[in-house]
Amino acid sequence: MGLLDLFKKKEPSAASSKGDRDLARLEKLVSSKFSQNLDRQDALDRLSQMGTAGAATALLKRFTWTLDPSITDQEEKAVVVAGLVKAGKEALEPIRSHCARAESVTWPLKALRQILSGDELVQELLTLLDQFDTDYVRNPEPKVQLLQALGEHPSEDVRIAAEPFITDANEAVRFAAVTTVFAVEDPRSVPSLIAGLAEEESLRIKNRIAGGLAERGWEIPEELRASCTSALPPGYRLDGGVIRG
Fold first, then answer.
1. Using N-to-C axis directions, what is the helix angle for 141-150 and 106-115, rounded to 10°?
2. Among 80, 50, 51, 75, which Cα is nearest to 63's?
3. 7, pLDDT greater than 60
4. Sorting pLDDT into bands at 50, 70 and 90, what band is 6?
5. Predicted pLDDT at 19
6. What's the pTM value of the predicted model, to 2 decimals?
7. What is residue 10's predicted lDDT score, i.e. its pLDDT?
8. In angstroms, rounded to a whole number, what is the distance separating the alpha carbons of residues 100 and 154?
C-alpha cells in the first residue's frame, strides 16, 4: 500500500470527525439560552438545512427552554419545526426520544403533522402516548397534549388507547381522556366511562361524563346501573337505563 493510499483512507475519517465536532458546536449553541442570539440563530439555520437525524436531535434541544421576548422564541422554534420537516422521517426517532422526557410536546407535534398524515400520523401519536402510563407524573402536559391530538383523529385504536387514561392520576389527563373517548362516538366505551365516573372525585369530570352519556343516550348495561346511579352528579338521574339531565 502506497503513502497516497494511506492519506486517502484517512480523509473520510477526518471529514467525519470534523462534521461531528461542527454538529456538537451547533448543538451547544442551540441548547443554551445564554448563547448570543445571532450565533444561535445561525446555528439553527445551518442545522435546519442538514436534514439528518443528528441535526434533528440537536434542533430539538431548542424546545427545552423559552426566551424573552416571546416573539423571538416563537420564531426560533418555527425554524426548528422547518428543520425537522426537512429531515422528514429521519426526524421521527429523535422526536420520539425527545417527547418521552419533554415538558411539552406542542412544538414537536407541529412538526409531526407536517412530516406525516392520515394513518401514519395517528400511529405515531399512539406510539408516543404508549410511552406513558396512568401513574402520577410531575408534569402531565405531554399526556394531555397527546390525548387532545388523538381526539382530532377518532378511531377504534384511539378509543382503546385513550380509555385507560380515564382513571389517570391527574385530573387534567382524565378530562382530556374523557373528551377524546367521546370524540370517537363509540358506545363500547360505556363500561370504561362508568368505571371512571364511579372512581371520580372531580365534579367537573363527573359532569363531563354524565353530560356526554346523557347527550348521546347510550344505554347503561344492567350490571353497571347501581354504581352509575350512586356516582351521578347533582342534576342527573338514571331513567330506564339511560342517563337524563
1. 30
2. 80
3. no
4. low
5. 79
6. 0.91
7. 54
8. 23
Cβ atoms within 10 A of the Cβ of 242, count?
A: 14
Query: How does pLDDT run across 12-21, given as a tens digit for each residue?
Result: 565 567 778 9
Q: What is the 3-state secondary structure (H, E, C) of the chain?
A: CCHHHHHHHHHHHHHHHHHHHHHHHHHHHHHCCCCCHHHHHHHHHHHHHHCCHHHHHHHHHHHHCCCCCHHHHHHHHHHHHHHHHHHHHHHHHHHHHHHCCCCCCHHHHHHHHHHCCHHHHHHHHHHHHCCCCCCCCCCCHHHHHHHHHHCCCCCHHHHHHHHHHHHCCCHHHHHHHHHHHHHHCCHHHHHHHHHHHHHCCCHHHHHHHHHHHHHHCCECCHHHHHHHHHHCCCCCEEECCEEEC
> Could you tell me the end-to-end alpha-carbon distance of the chain, in angstroms, rounded to an integer?
88
C-alpha cell, 16:
467525519
Quickly tell me which residue has 395517528 as its cell: 122
Question: Under a CB-based contact definition with an 8 Å cutoff, are residues 123 and 156 in contact?
Answer: no
User: Is the pLDDT assigned to residue 187 strictly greater than 70?
Assistant: yes
Residues making up the chain, counted from first to last: 245
| Grid cell in block for residue 178 | 374523557
| Torsion angle defined by CA atoms of residues 204, 208, 210 and 211, in that order, rounded to the nearest 10 degrees | 120
Calculate the alpha carbon distances from 81 to 74, 95, 136 in Å: 10, 11, 30
